[in-house]
TrEMBL record, chain A:
This is Protocatechuate 3,4-dioxygenase subunit beta. Belongs to the intradiol ring-cleavage dioxygenase family. GO terms for molecular function: ferric iron binding; protocatechuate 3,4-dioxygenase activity. It comes from Micromonospora sonchi. Keywords: Dioxygenase, Oxidoreductase. The lineage of its organism: Bacteria, Bacillati, Actinomycetota, Actinomycetes, Micromonosporales. NCBIfam families: protocat_beta. Gene3D superfamilies: Aromatic compound dioxygenase. InterPro entries: Intradiol_dOase_C, Intradiol_dOase_core, Intradiol_RC_Dioxygenase, PCDO_beta_N, Protocat_dOase_b. One of its GO terms (biological process) is 3,4-dihydroxybenzoate catabolic process. The gene is pcaH. Residues 84-112 form the Intradiol ring-cleavage dioxygenases domain.
């Protein structure tokens, strides 16, 4: 990636997502979208310098236990201990190394430690529900946490959110920024959840569901789930050598 | 984006409202920008990654909205940027807005008032002239004001990035 012989800037490009990969912003089954989703069409933004760069959030900013949500307080949180691990990849299957992964979640009783969450489930003094990790050179990350609980919300009659963990990813460039939710396999609440079902494509929905990973469980200690996250891939550019593809 | 006390730093403050005019009290605003010289400390900038000459400059900022839907970001004004087409982008910040009810982030840009380069900025040129003003901050005593309307008559221009 460099300036070509005429002195013009040559920038890497990122492929835009398929139409069905993300939910429509206006998804009326999810009531809050009705007053919050923009009604004007989005304006096409060419990817220029601001979009193909992004914050490089170095490992030096993380604490040693930021990835372990069960060891951030004096005592251990209640709930089923789980390991959540996976890889951050781009759309070409290449690892995204040394990138920040953030998670947040409700506690085992389904309650967030947040001023706007006041439903009558207990807070856990030993659980904040926020974690951060950097991917390694192979794009791998790992968190230790507890299984989050489902919780009610007032979107529709007797509405319950399936248990989930929020993921925030930066990737390498502003254009790759992604906030997603990870769900658990076989959750009986999927059928009535307008957020899960706002993703129209069945295969895309399944990509939000983690895989139970018995091989990574730690005997007499924790269950495990594997969750890979795919960010958008790069366009081929004239300056990318063909043998550069790993 | 910069530590408090940075010389020349300015606040960008604004309010986020929904289609009924209610404040969005649960939003998170993130910003990303070049430094005052128009440079990024990033390996994909073909001009070369360069740490900013402004001490403590990160280029990245994040703020939650308060009970009135207000956010505030402390930064230094970015420089203009060259484009692959040989044009120049006027100084701007890229903003992402996350909130309940937003199934995907919204992306917008903050441009600065009284910036001659706005007239030739290739992105502003592409925006519906009737809505262009939604991307312009207005002067404030300690910096600029940039309100964001998710919906309605004055809906902010949002981008597909």
């Amino acid at each position: 990636m460099t300036q070509d012989t005429t002195g013009k800037l040559v920038l890497p490009g990122y492929r835009r997502d398929d139409v069905d990969a993300h939910p429509p912003l206006l998804s009326p089954g999810y009531k809050s979208t009705v007053t919050r989703a923009p009604r004007q069409p989005l304006t096409y933004l060419p990817q220029r310098l601001t979009e193909i760069t992004g914050p490089v959030l170095g490992a030096g900013r993380l604490g040693e236990l930021d990835h372990d949500l069960t060891r951030q307080h004096d005592g251990e949180p209640l709930g089923q201990r789980i390991i959540v691990h996976g890889r951050v990849l781009d759309g070409d299957g290449r690892a995204v190394p040394h990138t920040l992964v953030e998670i947040w979640q409700a506690n085992a009783a389904g309650r967030y430690r947040h001023t706007l969450d006041n439903w009558p489930a207990p807070l856990d003094p030993n659980f904040t529900g926020v974690g951060r990790a950097m991917t390694d050179a192979q794009g791998r990350y790992e968190f230790v946490t507890v299984q989050p609980g489902a919780y009610p919300w007032r979107n529709h009659d007797n509405a319950w959110r399936p248990a989930h963990i929020h993921f925030s990813l930066f990737g390498r460039a502003f254009t790759q920024r992604l906030v997603a939710q990870m769900y658990f396999p076989g959750d009986p609440l999927f059928f009535q959840d307008p957020i899960f079902n706002s993703v129209r494509d069945e295969q895309a929905r399944q990509r939000m569901v983690a895989r139970y990973d018995h091989a990574t469980t730690r005997p007499e200690w924790a269950l495990a789930y594997e969750f890979d996250i795919v960010l958008r891939g790069r366009d081929a550019t004239p300056f990318e050598d063909e043998d550069d593809d790993e | 984006m910069v530590p408090e006390g940075t010389p020349g730093a300015c606040w960008i403050r604004g309010r986020i409202v929904d289609g009924t005019g209610e404040p969005v009290v649960d939003a998170l605003v993130e910003s990303w920008q070049a430094d005052p010289d128009g440079r990024f400390d990033h390996p994909d900038d073909p001009r070369g990654a360069r740490p900013s000459t402004v001490p403590g400059f990160r280029g990245f900022g994040r703020c939650e909205t308060d009970a009135q839907g207000r956010y505030a970001l402390l930064t230094v004004k970015p420089g203009a940027l060259p484009t692959p087409e040989g044009e120049t982008e006027a100084p701007h910040l890229a903003l992402s807005v996350f909130a309940r009810g937003l199934l995907h982030r919204l992306v917008t840009r903050v441009y600065f008032p009284d910036e001659a380069g706005n007239a030739t900025d290739p992105l502003l040129r592409d925006v519906d002239p009737a809505r262009r003003d939604t991307l312009l901050a207005s002067p404030a005593p300690d910096g600029y004001t940039f309100d964001i309307c998710l919906q309605g008559e004055h809906e902010t221009v949002f981008f597909a990035v």
